[in-house]
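Feature request disguised as a bug report, sorry. It would help if multi-protein outputs had a clear separator. Right now it looks like this:
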Amino acid sequence: MKPMPNTLATIKSKLDNKVGEEMMVVAQAGRKKITKRHGILHKTYPAVFVVDLDQDENSFERVSYSYTDILTKNIEIAFE
């Protein structure tokens, strides 16, 4: 039997339980290019979540993504 497809609500509730944990975000950055960013899940909002980025690797402090990005596989997240 196939697993049920994730919904935005289940993605959000899983992330709600991970606030404050270290994570990695792998994002599609165009043709055959991906970016990997390490950070800490800062906060979840109704439509987006915010990641505080590792300042040694990135020039900006925070980035936000929508839960739709995970659902449509535009980004992948992994917790350390």
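(second protein starts here, but nothing in the output says so)
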Amino acid sequence: MYRFLFKRVLDIIISLIALPFVLVISLILSVVIFFDDGGTPFYFAERLGKNGRVFKMYKLRTMKKNMPDLRNPDGSTYNSEDDYRLTSCGKWIRRFSLDELPQVLNVLKGEMSLVGPRPDLPSQEKFYVGNERDKLLVRPGITGYSQAYFRNSISWKERIGFDIFYIQNVSFIMDMKIILKTVTALFQSKNIYNTAVPSPCPTVETVVKG
């Protein structure tokens, strides 16, 4: 019952309570981002949603304008503390995952949940094998099991494995544990970046990316 009804109700209630704070913080950060390099504060990223439907995920921009799209060998997005593409304020914003705040709007629209598998790029769908497509049976989350416990310290395929574990065991208690663990992980600032060697995305030359 929780995963099919109460989880969505809880998403809406918590998101509505958080919305005023999210809007204020996002507005302040938008001004900082704009004065940093004069670019648009927001970034709209295409991601895979429930049932494989592509949606635009809202983020605050943390990268400089017109930067190349770099990917890890497994196809996931590359991020590093010394990534030359990051703006000066972008490094700080990413450290505390503040760039994810606008996704509260995605939750209210029904495209995301507060807790769930982190959404993949549409181009990654073709790399799913076996039961990995099961992660598309639920709404993706602002945070999730992998995000809370490992952040960026494990590979994309390992994250999918934990996503499937979450989907098979989702409960109110698990969601509350993930939310609390996420808050703790953000303040500890651990596993923020991955260490894989990046490669240029073969299908995208330059992007304005968050």
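Even a blank line would do. Unrelated, but nice: The radius of gyration is 16 Å.
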